[in-house]
Amino acid sequence: MPLHPFRRLMEPLIRPAFHFYWRFARGATLGARAVVIDGSGRVFLVRHSYVDGWYLPGGGVETGETMLTALKRELAEEGNIVLTATPRLHGIFLNARVSRRDHVALYVVRDFRQDGVPRPNYEIVEHGFFAPDMLPDGTTRATRARIAEVLNGGPASEVW
Length: 160
Description:
The chain has helices spanning 5-25, 67-79, 141-152; strands at residues 29-36, 43-48, 54-55, 58-60, 81-83, 88-94, 102-109, 112-114, 124-130. The chain is α+β, with helices and mostly antiparallel strands.
């Protein structure tokens, strides 16, 4: 799928600027993501407006937030998903593709409700639940690896 013309123009400028800011404004960055599994065994994925590929929902942990609070906020924003029980922590990973200072906590969410389908917005342009053996084209390598770890019970990597 071709990039939106504005995004194609701005992406080479915005991504390095954010990386520069984050590198010097924050000692380390933390993120929280989830493998959200519905009653049919399907996994919830999102596609962002600002980067190619399909990802597990989640995002950055803001100053003063716990990882779980950040996860709850991100799931509500990206998927209209509300936790109905405490999720299980699967692992904490180094995400060196973003920065050597970036770490991601991955949770497994099986108990949730979704009161209506989320509407695409400026950040999330597509979303959906997908069978693990039928993930959409463009699902990232790390997303596929984390799903396989959770669903197949294999050892978790330390690297995202």
